[in-house]
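[SOLVED] Need 3D model of a two-part complex

Original post:
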Amino acid sequence: MTVPSPGPPSPVPVLALGDILLVTLPGELHDATAEQLQQDITERIARSGATGVVIDISGVDIVDSYLGRVLAEIARTAALLAARTVLAGMRPAVAITLVELGLTLTGLTTALDVDRAMRLLSDPVVERPEAVDRTEGSP
Amino acid sequence: MMEVLPRRPAPIALPIGSDADLARVRQHVRLVATELGFGLVQQTKLVTAASELARNTLVHGGGGQAEITPLEEGHRTGLRLSFVDQGPGIRDVALAMTDGYSTGGGLGLGLSGAERLVHEFAIETGPGRGTTVTAVAWVTGVPAPRSGAGPRRPGAR
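Solution:
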């Protein structure tokens, strides 16, 4: 097992794919980096007019209440700037832990992976997360 | 000289003074929990609990240290995590343990949430006496660490 040394935090890159911003979180995220990311995403949405944000957390080992709060705030801020946020690729162990922790992140739209998240955001009709969940299951 | 058992990592104390230290504590707890044979979900719970408690030490206690101690009791293996600070202490522990109660601007899930993620949980504190929070988890289930059976080990990624 390789343990990367914490070192100085480097910013998380925000990629633009058409109208969608894609952010891939690293396995270990410092608090300051998470907060910086929140600002970066918000500014990028305002500047580019992105309509969606996909946050890939498939590489994230743990989500504690701090990171959970930052993710929820990113989604709420993006919503104020007319962009939808989808959290993609949460690991099963992270989901189990979050529920036990008491952090259910209600209101955050999720997808099993980045591919599904992109498709979800490219659908212009769907607005309500509940409706999305149902269409997701059918081929 | 005492023989060092390969599967029994030594106790270690890590400083908590910055958010980089929180990352170091998380990584170390993950490493030790893996070596002790905790399954993936239990590891994730332990590291998450450690992250919550270490952040409390930093934010409320003004910094301190984390003590990571492997335990062996008969046939069971466990891990004890202690978070020690010399801060102002907690005046009302019952209130601090309430879901949603926060003085640090967080979600108020740190203490109560961490307690749910481990098997044993204790707080020693009082006004002006600092705070020590101790959490213990035991390896549950049968899969042995190097058997190759059971869930995929996270170190393999």
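Edit: The first helix of chain A runs from residue 31 to 48.
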